[in-house]
Amino acid sequence: MSFVIKSTAERAQVWQQQFARHLPDIPFRVWPDIGDPAEVEYLAAWVPPDNLVERFPNLKILFSVGAGIDQFDLAAIPPHIQIVRMIETSLTEGMVAYVQFAVRAIQRDMLRYVSQQRTHVWQAHSVRAASAFRVGVMGLGQLGVPVACVLRDMGYVTQGWARSAREIDGVRCFAGEAEQAEFIASTDILVCLLPLTEQTAGILNRDLFARLPRGASLVQCGRGRHLVTDDLIAALDEGQLSAAILDVTDPEPLPADHPLWDRPDVLITPHIASATPTESGGMAIVNNIRRYLNGETPVGLVNRKMGY
Ligand code: GLV
C-alpha cells in the first residue's frame, strides 16, 4: 500500500515528514513519481489525475486537500472509492474570521468609506447596530454552523438555511425549498457557504435577489458558480442590492477587464477566505487513514448522493 500526494511541493515536503513519523509503514509518494500504481491505496489532490481507476486500480480513498470536492468528477469515481474532504479546525476558523470581517464591514459601511477615501471625502454616516441586521447563512454544514454561531454572538439577528432541518441555539433555522422564500425575505445580509452541487449552481440569481429586502447585501464564500454574475451586477445597479463581498468568482482568476473590479459597491478577495493549513491539514489526513485502518469512518466522508 502507498500514499500519493498531488499538491504543492511545500505541502508534499511537510506531509512526507508527518507520514514518516506517524504512518511509517505507508510509503509516501509525490506525484508524478508514484512508484508501482497497483500499490497506491490513498491519493490526496485538489484536482486528481484523469483516468483515476485505470491509473490506480487499488485506490481506496481519494482525499481532497481542500474543504470542497466540487472539482472532482464524482461520476468518474467508482463507488468503492471513498471520497473524503478536508475538515480541520484552522480551516473553519479562517472562514469564521473572514465572514465576521465581511459582515462587520457591511454593517459599518466600509465599502462606502473606502470609496469616499478614493475621492477624498470626509463624510460620516449613521451607525446601525448589529442587532438591526438580519444575517442569513445559506449552508449549515462544517463551516456554516460555526459561522452562524459567531454572528449570533456578535449581536446580529442570525438565521440559517440548509437542505435539511437543523437546530442551533439562538439561530432560526429554515430547511429546504419550502422554507427558502421566508428565509430570503427576512435576510438583510446573505452569506453563502453552500457546497456547489447541481442543485446549488446558479442559486444566487436575479430571482433570489429580487426576493431579498431592498438594499440587502451579499457575502459570497461558496463557489464562483453559485452566483450568476450578470444578475448580481443588475441587482446592484437597480439598488435592489447595496453591496457584495466576493471571495469566489466565476471564472477564477477574475479577468482583469471584468466589470466587477471597479465597482465601489463590490469588494473582491482572491479566494483567500480560508485555506487548508499545511501542518494540521497533513495531520487531518494522517488521522483519517488511521481511522480507516481501524475500521472507522473517516471525518469528512462525502455522501455521494448529496454531493458533499
Ligand atoms: C477552498 O476553497 C477549499 O475548498 O478548501
From TrEMBL:
The molecular function terms of the Gene Ontology recorded here are: NAD binding; oxidoreductase activity
Fetch the InterPro entries from UniProt: D-isomer_DH_NAD-bd, NAD(P)-bd_dom_sf
Q: Which CDD domains does the record cross-reference, listed alphabetically? A: GDH_like_2
Instruction: Read off the Pfam families from this record.
Output: 2-Hacid_dh_C
Assigned keywords, A-Z: NAD, Oxidoreductase, Pyruvate
List each copy of the D-isomer specific 2-hydroxyacid dehydrogenase NAD-binding domain by range: 105-273
This protein is called what?
Glyoxylate/hydroxypyruvate reductase A
